[in-house]
Amino acid sequence: MTAAVVTGLGITAPNGLGTEEFWKATLAGESGLGPVTRFDAAQYPSRIAGEVPGYVAEDHIPSRLMPQTDHMTRLALTAADWALKDAGIDTEELPEYGIGVVTAASGGAVEFGQRELQNLWSKGKEYVSAYQSFAWFYAVNTGQISIRHKLRGPSGVLLTEQAGGIDAIGHARRHIRKGFPAVIAGGVDAAICPWGWVPQIASGLMSTVDDPTRAYLPFAAEASGYVPGEGGAILLVEEAGSAGARSAAHVYGEIAGYAATLDPAPGTGRPPGLRRAAENALADAGITPGDVDVVFADASGVPDLDRAEAQALTELFGPAGVPVTAPKTMTGRLLAGGAALDAATALLALRDGVIPPTAHVTAPAPEHTIDLVTEAREADLRTALVLARGHGGFNAALVVRRTA
Amino acid sequence: MTTSTATVTLADLTRMLRESAGEEEGIDLDGDVIDTPFIDLGYDSLALLQVIGEIQRDYGISIPDDAVVDAETPGALLALINSGRTPAA
């Protein structure tokens, strides 16, 4: 069957703007978590976030797009620009209907939406931006990337909360298999505003610890929930033959396996679906657990969810049977951007033969029998498994494999 | 802001276009654009809706929604604004 490979990466993350800055910081264990600055969070129980540093929108976004884009969409457009540039693809030379765009989303552009709703309530309808008609919309990143680069291939948006970044990449592979040469896929999210904050608080899963080095400690005995972040990754997923024909500058790896499952309804007593997603993704890639060199964990930070994931990993790989890491400890959980960033990080790990660390966690709680990587570890990496769970029962697993 | 009796000039309009909808790369709004269709200046109907909203707020006037489709050029929009002044609702 046609292979789908990744030939371009674009990353906007709380611990680095741009792929190489992010990767350098990630290997060094440098965290981008800190007190919320995008809004006054003093009155909220959770006050720590991962914010993308030093992003000046005007440096990246044309003036015509400024009034009609949220911070989230600007980061997404920037990441898409970088992914295309990294891939060395000139969209002007591509067939107009050949390239699609598939991104993940959570709540849409909530900061823009909140501002315009506040204008409506406090000043009146005359004060609402005409661009509110689409700028808030959860499909807006896909739409704006498609318009900017004149990409009219099969496009869409997937909403499976934190699992979405993987689902978007899996969906991109479907389009490749149908004969399209390339798809821009991934997710970038940014919901660090009151409207984006409150529903997450209501989930009861967010950490309320104020120390950025102690707030998000997945698999640790002191785990207390998660810290949200903004940003994500956009990947250029390309048919292997197309990448070969144009002698693509990079082939980061192959999208070798993908699967998604839904958790059973609460109270049924049936096990959660994460293990099944992982098993199905391995089967899809035609490999066994012994072939996996590293796992990028979902790493919820919520004790019960950490327990469920550690148990699934132990059942699949045996106790401490595979290195497990969670570099998202340095970015926070990026909603629709998180799993896409993990997939990009896994590809960088394959490229350089090094497993990035789980920051701030010195050791997993004794009950979790996993080999948690807490310092960058060199290893001959051929195959990585990336796991993600989205609130509401979504599970997704992705297998990425080095091609050379 | 400007009083509702002031005439809206092309310079006012281009300033507000820049502010509310941005400026297309390669387009010089300070040039001779009075009869250039908005679409050629890089502005779609939403951009016009946005700038008309700003004009209505700043000048305290009301402009019919149809202006977005009826006024195809800056000149036509200015004529519509400056001739058919009605007090804001």
TrEMBL record, chain A:
Residues 1-402 form the Ketosynthase family 3 (KS3) domain. Keywords: Acyltransferase, Transferase. Gene3D superfamilies: 3.40.47.10. One of its GO terms (biological process) is fatty acid biosynthetic process. InterPro entries: Beta-ketoacyl_synthase, Ketoacyl_synth_C, Ketoacyl_synth_N, PKS_Beta-ketoAc_synthase_dom, Thiolase-like. GO terms for molecular function: 3-oxoacyl-[acyl-carrier-protein] synthase activity. PANTHER family: POLYKETIDE BETA-KETOACYL SYNTHASE 2-RELATED, POLYKETIDE SYNTHASE-RELATED. Belongs to the thiolase-like superfamily. Beta-ketoacyl-ACP synthases family. This is Ketosynthase chain-length factor.
Automatic annotation (TrEMBL), chain B:
SMART domains: PKS_PP (SM00823). It comes from the Bacteria. Keywords: Phosphopantetheine, Phosphoprotein. InterPro entries: ACP-like_sf, PKS_PP-bd, PP-bd_ACP, Ppantetheine_attach_site. One of its GO terms (biological process) is antibiotic biosynthetic process. One of its GO terms (molecular function) is phosphopantetheine binding. The keyword Phosphoprotein applies. Residues 8-85 form the Carrier domain. This is Acyl carrier protein. It comes from Streptomyces antnestii.
